[in-house]
Amino acid sequence: MGLISFLQDAGEKLFHRGAAAAPAAAPATAAPAANVDQLNTAAAEAIEKYIRGQNLNADGLDVAYDGSTQTVTVRGTAPDQATREKIVLCCGNVNGVAKVDDQMSVAAGAEPESTYHTVKSGDTLSKIAKEAYGNANAYMKIFEANKPMLTDPDKIYPGQVLRIPPA
Fold this sequence. Notes:
This protein is of the alpha+beta class and about 170 residues long. It has five helices and six strands; from the N terminus they run E-H-H-E-E-H-E-E-H-H-E. The strands form two sheets. It has a four-stranded mixed β-sheet with strand order 1-4-3-2.
């Protein structure tokens, strides 16, 4: 998939953003490299724990975070395309993450990739389904495609990125 953009000020609050973003804002002499590495490692571990907490598994899952660019790099082999896309969304829908470098592969045969939709103020899953499929009642397809990250069709927020599976 490559590099995917997210809104850095929206999403799950998995780590103290000020600490993780500090390397980008601080002068080079202000923070020792070891401290920056520790902050990046802690953020990556928090994201990986969140992925595993969603019961999303991939062989060789490896998550790295670079606070200076607010980029997550994710590697591993997902069992299918849907799991790959959900893992990428778990990485990107985190406060303090602006980009995800998706370096994952898929073990199963080729499946069509989903498109992505960034939720705007006033959006509902029905409205998004109407735009994507021409049928507002298809909102459950989007909800199911974004489980377990979504627990209720009415609980989406501006800035959240959702997978929109092919029709």
